């Protein structure tokens, strides 16, 4: 890689060109680079000290559990030790966040949050455009309706089921004064909504559900703040068969979308980071586009326009056509060779902070066109922070970035991923550390599960993975997050978010289960795809989250003791069959994910588990699998040899799963490629990995593959 000297640092020539020629907006390049160096000088030592503190606390916790081996777990004694070493910190006096200029998609309206790897422009654009999605398509094309389309063309019987489902949904969430949406013969929208049924006329039971109409006759409803567009088009194939000419029902779906620079991407060097930043820049400028071949046709995807309609009082309304996008930066751990200082890599988190916010200035300076934040904010999601000092460090970092770029204080809003144990245990103090920026707390339960296993490594053998969802700590974590957000005044200002639906193909189950998120008081929850966003949107039609939050405020705060009780097996045997099954399942998913990451730079994959259920795998799910097996080896539930044997049995299976991919290199029978070795190391060296993170080994392996290819 070639570098250019800027101020006192060596910057990848490609990154410097991107920044100087395309990103910097009215900022002198020399001033920018001097500011960058000043920031490194002030913040790198603190960054390193925070990482050292993580290690120090971990060794103290390891030592405490090792010295209490074999004893019955005493939560009081454990927590008093955690207080003594500063792991549990005093809670702040009651306070409320006070955040200004927050867009309604975050502050007031509840709805789905889509996450997308920003390195993939085709997906990133699709995510931004997923603000609106077809309910008919989402039902027709997934298992949300039992079975699958039959025959080659349109399956009319399935189509009828879709229409029936969608009309029944409208009957529940936007009912007619009398009769059913299933029997509508004609719709006339104007100052009021007139609906003709077979046996007379009616209108909506609740006039507030009527939002207006579009020039083409489409009807706009609004339920719990989310728009529903009833499309009327008698010339379309579906509309022609419908008595009222209804051709589709389109839902406001992904209100927000997180463009991810972190766990769903594989960005290890300057070349990769340039792709990340260029895509994010394109989204902020509104110019990103991508051409690709789909179904034999070349298509070009761009950002969608806003949606216009007329309100019942005749006023013209312009409503966002795109999700409000947030950017997930990386955490405080990793460094990257894109910017070198004194011959050393510099923190990737600092680089993400400066560059993604600088890109967002292109949005901030717009007054029309494809704007992202109409309120004038930049939304950054900060993952993997451990405790209040690390959150305070993020506050300092983004404040320094604002100063460097000449932005008003608190332009940058922060979302805290509540996904590390020390953060959950001190969540109020974490929020307090960014109380003028904090726009979300989200239970990233996948990383959080990985951190639970890693932090409690010496407490004993962890329970089988399938039992984790029911364990007491997880319930206390999910409830505690909501309780803390409510006490900190999040209602009307910020999101209380819940985690990812990690079975992207199982939409029927998602429809059943994920309504639990708004019912638990979450005003958003993560979905893996635009289709999932549309289906999950229906949940927010049913549940008024503000009402739920108002009710929940009265309940007692979730128990800290439960939160900090480790999910270990006490006095329990695990059968040989169960061990083999767990080993094979984990090894298969580790290999299936790692091989695509290391060999092809794909950061998020759909990988079949041992029962052939397709699971979304990213660095966080990998962290769980690796730490889980590392824990079982540590406590003698299985041996290193068994792990090795399971990897070798599973590698040919993963190779077969990828047989259709021309770019794929098999791992068997040699078992000595970079990917296989990285997978093995993630388990065998798992305990030594900082906080059990997977990135150090993944980055190393990927860099070696990229180097070899050059
Ligand atoms: C623990 C955590 O940190 S969770 C957060 C990180 N995880 C994520 O961000 C998950 C994001 N999701 C994804 O990356 C993908 O959905 C995967 C990898 C799970 C599955 O990808 P695929 O196997 O390619 O999906 P599939 O073939 O079913 O669908 C592809 C289509 O859906 C679209 N799509 C799928 N996921 C997304 C998404 N998250 N955003 C936007 N579009 C998407 C694609 O654009 C594509 O449509 P197109 O052909 O019109 O472009
Ligand atoms: O980032 C999300 C998680 O679950 O981890
Ligand atoms: Mg995470």
Automatic annotation (TrEMBL):
Q: What is this enzyme's catalytic activity, as reactions?
A: glyoxylate + acetyl-CoA + H2O = (S)-malate + CoA + H(+)
What keywords appear on the UniProt entry?
Answer: Acyltransferase, Cytoplasm, Glyoxylate bypass, Magnesium, Metal-binding, Oxidation, Transferase, Tricarboxylic acid cycle
Question: Its pathway?
Answer: Carbohydrate metabolism; glyoxylate cycle; (S)-malate from isocitrate: step 2/2
Which positions are annotated as binding Mg(2+)?
Answer: 419, 447
Q: Positions modified as Cysteine sulfenic acid (-SOH)?
A: 604
- Name assigned to this protein: Malate synthase G
Give the protein's function: Involved in the glycolate utilization. Catalyzes the condensation and subsequent hydrolysis of acetyl-coenzyme A (acetyl-CoA) and glyoxylate to form malate and CoA.
Instruction: List the transmembrane segments.
Output: none
Cofactor section: Mg(2+)
Family the UniProt entry places it in: Belongs to the malate synthase family. GlcB subfamily.
GO terms for cellular component: cytosol
A GO molecular-function annotation: malate synthase activity
Q: Where is the active site?
A: 328, 618
Q: Name one Pfam family in it.
A: MS_C
Which InterPro entries does the UniProt record give? Malate_synth_C_sf, Malate_synth_sf, Malate_synthase_TIM, Malate_synthG, MS_C, MS_N, MS_N_TIM-barrel_dom, MSG_insertion
Q: Which residues bind acetyl-CoA?
A: 115, 122-123, 264, 301, 528
Summarize subunit and interaction data from the UniProt record for this chain.
Monomer.
In Gene Ontology terms, what is a biological process of this protein? tricarboxylic acid cycle
Where glyoxylate binds, per the record, is at 328, 419, 444-447
Enzyme Commission number(s) from the entry: 2.3.3.9
The subcellular location is: Cytoplasm
């Amino acid at each position: 890689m070639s570098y250019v000297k800027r101020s006192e640092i060596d910057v990848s020539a490609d990154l410097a060109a991107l920044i100087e020629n395309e990103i910097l907006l009215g900022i002198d390049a020399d001033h920018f680079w001097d500011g960058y160096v000043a920031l490194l000088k002030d913040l790198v030592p603190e960054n390193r000290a925070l990482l050292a503190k993580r290690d120090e606390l971990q060794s103290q916790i390891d030592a405490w559990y090792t010295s209490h081996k074999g004893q019955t777990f005493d939560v009081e004694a454990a927590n008093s030790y955690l207080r003594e070493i500063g792991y549990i910190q005093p809670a702040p006096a009651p306070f409320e966040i006070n955040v200004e200029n927050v867009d309604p998609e975050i502050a007031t309206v509840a709805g789905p949050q889509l996450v997308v790897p920003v390195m993939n422009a085709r997906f990133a654009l699709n995510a931004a455009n997923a603000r609106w999605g077809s309910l008919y398509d989402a039902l027709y094309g997934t298992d949300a309706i039992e079975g699958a389309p039959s025959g080659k063309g349109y399956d009319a019987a399935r189509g009828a089921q879709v229409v029936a489902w969608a009309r029944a949904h409208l009957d529940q969430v936007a009912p007619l004064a009398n009769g059913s949406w299933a029997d509508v013969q004609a719709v006339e929208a104007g100052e009021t909504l007139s609906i003709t049924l077979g046996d007379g006329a009616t209108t909506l039971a609740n006039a507030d559900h009527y939002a207006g109409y579009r020039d083409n006759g489409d009807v706009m409803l609004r339920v719990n703040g989310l728009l529903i567009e009833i499309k009327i088009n008698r010339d379309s194939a579906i509309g022609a068969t419908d008595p009222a000419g209804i051709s589709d029902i389109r839902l406001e779906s992904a209100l927000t979308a997180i463009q991810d620079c972190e766990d769903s991407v594989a960005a290890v060097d300057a070349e990769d980071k340039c792709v990340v930043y260029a895509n994010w820049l394109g989204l902020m400028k509104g110019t990103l586009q991508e051409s690709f071949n789909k179904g034999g046709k070349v298509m070009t995807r761009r950002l969608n326009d806003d949606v216009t309609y007329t309100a019942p009082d005749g006023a013209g309304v312009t409503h966002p056509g795109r999700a409000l996008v947030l950017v997930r930066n990386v955490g405080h751990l990793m460094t990257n060779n894109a910017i070198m200082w004194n011959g050393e890599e510099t923190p990737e988190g600092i680089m993400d902070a400066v560059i993604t916010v600088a890109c967002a200035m292109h949005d901030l300076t717009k007054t029309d066109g494809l704007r992202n934040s109409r309120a004038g904010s930049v939304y950054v999601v900060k993952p993997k922070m451990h405790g209040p000092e690390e959150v305070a460090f993020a506050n300092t970092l983004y404040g320094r970035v604002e100063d460097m770029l000449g932005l008003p204080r608190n332009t940058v809003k922060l979302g805290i991923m509540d996904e590390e144990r020390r953060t959950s245990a001190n969540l109020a103090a974490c929020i307090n550390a960014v109380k003028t920026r904090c726009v979300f707390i989200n239970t990233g339960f996948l990383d959080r599960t990985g951190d639970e296993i890693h932090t409690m490594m010496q407490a004993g053998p962890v329970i089988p993975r399938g039992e984790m969802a029911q364990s007491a700590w997880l319930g206390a974590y999910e409830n505690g997050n909501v309780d803390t957000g409510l006490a900190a005044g999040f209602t009307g200002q910020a999101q209380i978010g819940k985690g990812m639906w990690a079975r992207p193909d199982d939409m029927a189950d998602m429809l059943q289960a994920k309504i639990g998120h708004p019912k638990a008081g979450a005003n958003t929850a993560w979905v893996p795809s635009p289709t999932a966003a549309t289906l999950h949107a229906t949940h927010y039609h049913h549940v008024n989250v503000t009402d739920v939050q108002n009710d929940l405020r009265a309940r007692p705060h979730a128990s800290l003791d439960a939160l900090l009780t480790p999910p270990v097996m006490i006095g329990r045997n695990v059968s040989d069959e169960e061990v083999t099954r767990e080993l094979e399942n984990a090894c298969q998913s580790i290999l299936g994910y790692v091989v695509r990451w290391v060999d092809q730079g794909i950061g998020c994959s759909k990988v079949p588990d041992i029962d052939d259920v397709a699971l979304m795998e990213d660095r966080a799910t990998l962290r769980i699998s690796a730490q889980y097996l590392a824990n079982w080896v540590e406590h003698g539930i299985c041996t290193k040899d068994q792990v090795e044997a399971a990897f070798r049995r599973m590698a040919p299976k993963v190779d077969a799963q990828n047989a259709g991919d021309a770019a794929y290199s098999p791992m068997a029978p040699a078992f000595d490629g970079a990917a296989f070795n990285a997978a093995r190391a993630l388990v065998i060296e798992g305990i030594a990995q900082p906080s059990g993170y997977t990135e150090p080994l993944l980055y190393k392996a990927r860099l070696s593959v990229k180097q070899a290819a050059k």
